[in-house]
Amino acid sequence: MAPTIFLLGSSNGIGRATAILFASEGAKVTITGRNGSDLLETKNLMMKSGAKGGDILMIVGDLRKEEVQNKLITSTVDNFGGIDILVNNAGGTGTDNCKEQGFKKGMDEYDYTLDLNTRTYVLFLIRSALVQDIPKISIAWMAVQFIPLLQPQRGMAYFKALENENFVLDLMLEV
Fold this sequence. Notes:
Blueprint: E1 4-8, H1 13-24, E2 28-33, H2 36-48, E3 56-60, H3 66-80, E4 85-88, H4 107-130, E5 140-143, H5 157-162, H6 165-174
Parallel strand pairs: 1-2, 1-4, 2-3, 4-5
Helix pairs in contact: 1-2, 3-4
């Protein structure tokens, strides 16, 4: 039986490559992202790798929104019967992808980054995925860290304050 992969942040980069790999191995995959055209490109690449259209569930939305979180969980369970592996690749450095440097970004940008990165871990993974009564939810959990935390980088202070791998490890012990 093919596993069901729940992949947050799949519209480009590491998430896209991960989606294509799982699809090429015959998994059923839920892909998510904020940009519909980028996500559609991911789906098309997955199908070129051998995936069947019915084995891919594509949901466009902003994970900061509770209704998107709920839709992702219920749609995945309704379509595939459960979740086997959750890959959290969602998150980001801010609304402008680091065009503005460091603390010049202001508190609105900090609030956005905090909201985006903490909601994918805390609200979504625990409240939505692990607390709800979901059938077949023996999740193997993987959190992707794509920016080295110990390497200083100009303009990354807000992001690195939030992307703390120890937080993820502690959170895994809680659930």
